[in-house]
Amino acid sequence: MRAVPLTDQPGAEVLALDVPGLRDWLWRVLPTRPASSEHAHHETAWALAERFDAAGLPAQAALCRSVTTHEVLSVWRWTRSFPEVPTAFWEPALETLGPEPAPPARVRHSLASARGLLEAVGEGLRLTAAGTLPRTTVFALDDRFRWTEDFPWLHPDGEADIPPLHALHEHLVAQGLLSRDGDRLVVSEDGRAARDDLPRLWRAVVDPRPRWSRDFEQDALGVTAAVLLRRRAFTPGRTAEEVADVLAAKWRPAEPASTPLGVYDGVSAVVHAWYLVGVPLGWWDTGHGPADRRPNAFGRAAAEAVFRAMRRAGTASARAGGPPR
């Protein structure tokens, strides 16, 4: 991006900041200022970089140009695409922004089931006529990860009877770690590379894309992450209601009179899918009731990763087209 002169460029008080003070100003103060255009805050940072260069302050100039600074500004810009939502709603999530963190401690425990499924597929498995894993593989994975012990009302006869396994299977396919070749399931090149590379596998399972790449889905998942980081509780139905309230001012169905899906229905599908993905990955601790889940360290790290990913989300202030049908 080319630096351009702005009429509201910061004065000497910003140029006098040390690196920590400048970081706080760029990441916490600048984004709250009114912007004359979609890219005004980015342009301010680039213009400041040139001024720091001229003043012989290369560390400050590098911070103004850094990828992290512009990612933070992009996420703030995304939150501004919900003009009726107060800044206080976003604050707990915004406080998590900064350099991309390493995967959470003991991440291998969260990823054990994903790695287990990749290993079980091995050189390839023949799927059933319904497109599900063969029963021998299903029972071997259930014996290893004890999903039916956590859900004693389940009486499985196949993959479809074990929702955590089915959700994991769907997610790894959607994220490109597994691929379907006719009636066979195989580990993709990305899946093989990630299987023994825990940071890479973690990034792959928590990234909204490619599974949730449409603008509406990105918005729904980003707001879900903000809610989780704000409330530290996840009752899927209530969370979907709160997220739908936020999205309702920005999104509307393309054909209100004919489409069966409204904003809530589209949000609910995304929220419940994210919840189900987190079950086999161990993201939730039990809360005050059977439907109440609280994100643990893995769940919070996943929510932070999703919120950071909103740097790539669309930024228009309003859109027609509505939830996917």
Structure, explained:
Mean pLDDT is 88; it is low at 1-7 and 315-325. Strands 1-3-2 form a three-stranded antiparallel beta sheet. Strands 4-5 form a two-stranded antiparallel sheet. The chain has helices at 12-15, 19-29, 40-54, 58-65, 67-79, 87-94, 107-121, 135-145, 147-150, 163-174, 189-195, 198-206, 215-231, 236-248, 263-278, 297-308; strands at 125-126, 178-181, 184-187, 284-286, 293-295. The protein is mainly alpha-helical and 325 residues long. Strand 2 and strand 3 (184-187) form a beta hairpin. Among the domains are: 12-65, no CATH class; 107-205, Arc Repressor Mutant, subunit A, CATH 1.10.10. Helix 3 (40-54) runs antiparallel to helix 4, helix 11 (189-195) crosses helix 12 (198-206) and helix 13 packs across helix 14. The longest helix is centred in the last third of the chain and has 17 residues, at 215-231. The chain is elongated.
Protein topology:
Blueprint: H1 12-15, H2 19-29, H3 40-54, H4 58-65, H5 67-79, H6 87-94, H7 107-121, E1 125-126, H8 135-145, H9 147-150, H10 163-174, E2 178-181, E3 184-187, H11 189-195, H12 198-206, H13 215-231, H14 236-248, H15 263-278, E4 284-286, E5 293-295, H16 297-308
Antiparallel strand pairs: 1-3, 2-3, 4-5
Helix pairs in contact: 2-4, 3-4, 6-13, 11-12, 13-14, 13-15, 13-16, 14-15
